[in-house]
Amino acid sequence: MGKKKSKKNKAPKVEEVFHAIKILCVMSFVGFILAILVDTGNYMSFSSVEELKTAINQAPYEKLETTIDKFESVGLDVSQSGLDRVAFMYLVRTLIDILAMVGVVLMFFEIRKGLIIYTIFQFIYVLVPFLFFGGVALVVIPYKSVAITLIYVALFTSQRKYLVK
């Protein structure tokens, strides 16, 4: 007769399952890098309008001037203090991006608190322009930017069951 094998000493098999949340995290991380670059670029542009006016290469100023004209057409303050406010708003959004990225990294490692951190900072990210500019916020920040942010929050929320830690 053969010996019976004891099940007491056997470690259970743990299989790593690849969930869609990992793909969302990678895509979101890439999106955050791009958003940080855009927001930082806008911060630098709006905080240095006077320097751009006198620069040899006028192409960046001409592009910025078109944006400033659009702001002025909806009644946004385009004086130096108004443009400084726009610049500061982009700086705040850059910092919020960095904090929301922490949530994405935590979610990549399936930590549930990451979703909470991510969601809070993404909602703040959407609200900041409205807090700064009220109803004309969607002139400063395009609809598509707001929509993409909210879609990602919904996608991550739909994957919350895979956040096990």
Descriptive tags:
165 residues; 7 helices; elongated
How are the SSEs ordered, and which strands pair?
Elements: H1 20-47, H2 49-53, H3 59-73, H4 80-108, H5 113-133, H6 137-140, H7 143-158
Helix pairs in contact: 1-4, 4-5, 5-7
Describe what this molecule looks like in 3D:
This protein has helices at residues 20-47, 49-53, 59-73, 80-108, 113-133, 137-140, 143-158. It has 165 residues and is mainly alpha-helical. The longest helix has 29 residues, at 80-108. The protein is elongated. The mean pLDDT is 89.
Give me the Rg, rounded: 23 Å
How many discrete domains? 1
Helix share, percent: over 70%
- Decide which structural class fits the backbone: mainly alpha
Q: Could you state the order of secondary-structure elements as H and E?
A: HHHHHHH
For this entry, what is the oligomeric state of its chains? single chain
Q: Major β-sheet, in short?
A: none
Summarize the structure.
The protein is an all-alpha fold.
